[in-house]
Write a structure and sequence with these properties.
This protein has 119 residues and is an all-alpha fold. It has one domain (23-109): Helix Hairpins (Orthogonal Bundle), CATH 1.10.287. It is built from 5 helices and no strands. The protein is elongated and about 55 Å long. This is Chaperone DnaJ-domain superfamily protein. InterPro entries: DnaJ_domain, DnaJ_domain_CS, J_dom_sf.
């Protein structure tokens, strides 16, 4: 499945995990969502957060813009594939950083109690 295809890293500008916007979470979807699911979720959320319903709140406008941005990326097959590659690469790198940072604790908590490194 292309959702988990990390591909190569040439030409990608990887984003910081803190600044990263998960378009799937914005649209309340799984990463293997179909085009119809993406479209129906976008319509449902766009109607729910439309700025005309919340004229006094700026948060509704920013939420609506996030929903719009997520739909623009996920509705285009090429942009979605590139986004998924970046997303999977960043998640992999983040998890590797965490494993390296806490590897002694993980080994101890697993009951191994040894300082033999696996990597």
């Amino acid at each position: 499945m292309w959702c988990s295809d990390w591909g190569d890293s040439h030409g990608f500008d990887f984003f910081d995990f803190e600044d990263y916007k998960d378009h799937y979470k914005v649209l309340e979807l799984n990463c293997d969502a179909s085009d119809d699911e993406i479209r129906s979720s976008f319509i449902r959320l766009a109607l729910k957060w439309h700025p005309d319903k919340f004229k006094e709140e700026d948060s509704a406008t920013s939420r609506f813009q996030e929903i719009n941005e997520a739909y623009q990326v996920l509705s285009d097959p090429i942009a979605r594939q590139e986004y998924d590659k970046k997303r999977m690469r960043r998640i992999y790198e983040h998890n590797t950083e965490l494993l390296n940072e806490y590897k002694e604790l993980i080994l101890t908590c697993n009951g191994l109690g040894v300082k033999h490194y696996l990597w």
